[in-house]
Write a structure and sequence with these properties.
This protein is of the alpha/beta class. Helices cover 26% and strands 16% of the residues. The chain is built from seven helices and nine strands, in the order E-H-H-H-E-H-E-E-E-E-H-E-H-E-E-H. The strands form two sheets. It has a six-stranded parallel beta sheet with strand order 3-2-1-7-8-9, sandwiched between helices. Strand 2, helix 4 and strand 3 form a beta-alpha-beta unit. Helix 3 runs parallel beside helix 7. The longest helix is centred in the first third of the chain and has 16 residues. The radius of gyration is 18 Å and the shape is globular. Bound molecules: 2'-O-acetyl adenosine-5-diphosphoribose. 2'-O-acetyl adenosine-5-diphosphoribose binds next to helix 7. The site of 2'-O-acetyl adenosine-5-diphosphoribose (OAD) has 25 residues, from helix 7.
Length: 244
């Protein structure tokens, strides 16, 4: 483990954050993996796109419950310190990008001015019909039954990215652009097991970035592209690391 001290952000021009479920743990939201993780039972069936449309009832049940759970919590210092850092350092020829695998919207509620949601958001709904003109739209409802599209009558679904689906094109494009010139890469609260985000550190390293991993536990297996590792709760480490 490295010795924790505040980063001198003025030395970097293209800073990239990648966050995962661990940044929302202090808000009271369970992570995906680990002893109390939600990644158990039939979640694997529900979150696999290959099981649509048969899995729609369970998909709405699962994400409807998560909508309600997320609405009941608040952002925590891990979110707000990153937001403050973005506001302080983005601009004047310096870019600070925030990519999250989270679908809970807590970075935005914590004040982040710009968040790239790699796995989209539970608070958006879209039509299952790929040919339908309905745009994904903001939606906080917790429906009792599968809602139907007002344009084509097909079933609606939460807009989250499921296994077997591509990331949103704009997110992919922004990640490519940010990683190409990255000189400081900080991953926080992610087990580093889900691609393509799990590969971002390698790309940042190839660009010559300083690479930092902040997480409760070490990554297993260890990813040697991370050159520094700070273990502990993100909500305690980030205020020191980012000088919040
Ligand atoms: P995981 O649940 O895989 O990993 C969360 C990590 O956060 C674990 O390594 C924990 O040790 C760590 N952690 C827990 N509490 C923490 C804290 N207070 N501070 C710092 N770290 C803490 O979650 P992700 O890596 O985000 O995708 O998972 C990636 C993707 O897997 C998710 O976006 C989701 C899931 O399948 C889709 O649903 C498409």
């Amino acid at each position: 483990m490295s010795h924790l001290q505040t980063i001198d952000a003025s030395r970097y021009k293209n800073i990239v954050f990648l966050t995962g479920a661990g940044v929302s743990a202090a808000s009271g939201l369970p992570t995906f993996r680990g002893p109390n993780g939600i990644w158990q039972g039939d979640v694997a069936y529900v979150t696999n796109a290959a099981n649509l449309p048969g899995s729609l009832p369970q998909l709405w049940e699962f994400y409807g419950r998560r909508r309600a759970a997320v609405q009941a919590v608040q952002s925590n210092p891990a979110h707000t310190v990153i937001a403050d850092f973005q506001r302080k350092w983005h601009g004047s020829g310096r870019s600070v990008s925030l990519f999250t695998q989270n679908v809970d919207g807590l970075h935005q509620r914590g004040g982040s001015p710009d968040v790239v949601e790699l796995h989209s958001s539970i608070f958006r709904t879209r039509c299952l019909n790929p040919a339908c003109a309905l745009e994904p739209y903001p939606d906080e409802t917790v429906p009792d039954e599968i809602p139907t599209c007002p344009l084509c009558g097909w079933a609606l679904r939460p807009d989250v990215v499921l296994f077997g689906e591509l990331l949103p094109a704009e997110a992919t494009w922004r990640a490519q652009r940010a990683l190409r010139g990255c000189d400081l890469f900080i991953a926080v609260g992610t087990s580093g097991t889900v691609s393509p985000a799990a590969d971002y550190v390698r790309r940042a390293g190839l660009a010559g970035a300083r690479t930092i991993y902040v997480n409760l536990t070490s990554m297993t297996p260890r990813n040697t592209a991370f050159k520094e590792e700070y273990l502990g709760p993100a909500e305690e480490i980030l205020p020191v690391l980012l000088g919040g």
